[in-house]
Amino acid sequence: QVQLVESGGGLVQAGASLRLSCAASRRGFSNNAMGWFRQAPGKEREFVAAITWSGRWTYYADSVKGRFTISTDNAKNTVYLQMNSLKSEDTAVYYCAADSSAAFTSRAAAYEYWGQGTQVTVSS
User: Fold this and answer.
1) How far is residue 106's CA from residue 97's CA, in Å, rounded to a whole number?
2) Contact 121, 21 (CB under 8 A)
3) CA 76 to chain centre
4) What is the mean pLDDT of the chain?
5) Residue 8, phi-psi category: left (phi > 0), alpha (psi -120 to 50), beta (remainder)
6) What are the Cα distances from residue 54, in Å, to 58, 60, 62, 112?
7) How many CB atoms are closer than 10 A to CB 9?
8) pLDDT tens across 12-30, in order?
9) How confident is the model at residue 77 (pLDDT cuts 50, 70, 90)?
10) How far apart (Å, rounded) are the C-alpha atoms in residues 121 and 86?
C-alpha cells in the first residue's frame, strides 16, 4: 500500500504559477512511475504528466507541455508539479497517482494508488 497526500492547490489568476506537491508514504523502484491527473467538472479524468522515481523519464500531455514541469525529491518521497502560465482551462481537481509496475503510461487505469486530490482554480 502507498498513501499519497497532495497539497499546494489554490485560487490564482490567469498567468500565475502554482506548485503542487505529492507526499508518498514510500518510494517505488527507480523505474516505477508517479503521475499527475486532473478532472474538471463534467469531464473525464485526464493525464497531465508522469515521471519515474529515477527522474530519468518524463511525459507530458500536449496541453501542458512547456508550461508544467514534473519532478521528484527522492529524499522526501515527494513528487512536484510546477505549473506556470496557468490558464482558466487548467481549472480542475489535481490527483497524484502511483504505479507499481514499469509500464510508464498515461492511462489512469494503470495506476493503483491515488491521492485525495487538490483543487486548482484559475480565474480569467
Assistant:
1) 11
2) no
3) 16
4) 95
5) left
6) 10, 16, 23, 19
7) 18
8) 999 999 999 999 998 888 8
9) very high
10) 9
